[in-house]
Design a protein that fits this description.
about 280 residues; 7 strands; 7-stranded mixed sheet; alpha/beta
């Protein structure tokens, strides 16, 4: 794995955790070079404890949290595109001219292309079309990433941005229903509040089909790093967070398996791979 390269294209610090955090750590442990491109610094995110940040300092604090998580997972480099967090759909943050959703698509795609050509990844990870739970920035990075991948491979597109690179595979990391239901079961056994799960199917109606995936990874050896990375993002995952209500040993069971849908190239029906790099040459 020492000659393999993995590139994550995401919107905010902490997007790298829930879906693919175990895989990132596991591949990094095996010698894969891992880089992360983040569109924003998460300036419109939650503040779990007012002692940690203010709305004015949140972006700076989240950058520090991202550094902690990157070190924990083994990410070699984090690059920020410098856009501003757009906030949830319908929020006042949507109107900020620097908000990522208001970015010039041509400019943003060119910046992603520049990073793809620089890293020359064998695999790219990014959000599926719904962006996990519908965040506008998640949807935006999805659209722009899928434009950037073919553009990066096109010799006629912006040769000033580096030599063309055709990324062999793009995957969408998924949080499947089975994972959330396992969490619900553990929480119910401890008499914890499970109301979050009551309308789970309704909330997932627009998300990626639960049975459409091509890779299942057992990340048990790296799940401890994933849980530690959660704790790095303290402003977003405080003690009351859904993902911190169970003991680590139970969360390790919940998060032991990660699932990935192949986005590019378009998968043949019934495709199953043993890993993200399965069969790829150096």
């Amino acid at each position: 794995m020492k000659n393999k390269r993995l590139l994550l294209l995401y919107a905010h610090p902490d997007d790298e955790i829930l879906g693919p955090g175990g895989a990132v750590a596991q591949y990094a442990n095996q010698g894969v070079h891992v880089e992360l491109v983040v569109a924003t610094r998460g300036e419109a995110g939650e503040i779990s404890d007012p002692a940690l940040a203010t709305p004015e300092t949140l972006g700076e604090v989240r950058e520090q949290e991202m550094r902690c998580a990157a070190d924990t997972l083994g990410i070699n480099c984090v690059t920020y595109l410098g856009y501003r967090d757009s906030g949830m759909e319908g929020s006042a943050d949507n109107q900020n001219p620097r908000a990522y959703i208001n970015s010039d698509p041509a400019e943003a795609v060119s910046r992603l292309v520049e990073n793809i050509r620089r890293v020359r990844p064998h695999v790219i990870l990014t959000f599926e079309p719904f962006g996990g739970y519908g965040h506008p920035d998640h949807k935006t990075i999805h659209k722009q990433a899928l434009l950037a991948v073919p553009a990066a491979a096109d010799p006629g597109y912006r040769p000033d941005l580096g030599w063309p690179w055709a990324t062999p595979r793009v995957f969408y990391p998924l949080v499947r229903r089975v994972t959330l239901l396992a969490m619900k079961e553990y929480m119910a056994a401890r008499d914890l509040d499970v109301s979050f799960f009551e309308d789970l199917d309704k909330r997932r109606a627009e998300s990626w089909p639960d049975d459409l995936y091509h890779v299942t990874l057992d990340v048990g050896d790296a799940v401890g790093q994933k849980l530690a990375a959660f704790r790095c993002h303290a402003t977003q995952f405080g003690l009351d967070s859904l993902f911190r209500r169970l003991p680590d040993e139970e969360m390790a069971q919940v998060l032991r398996y990660e699932y990935f849908a192949q986005a590019l190239p378009e998968p043949e029906p019934g495709l199953r791979l043993d890993g993200l790099f399965d069969g790829l040459a150096d």
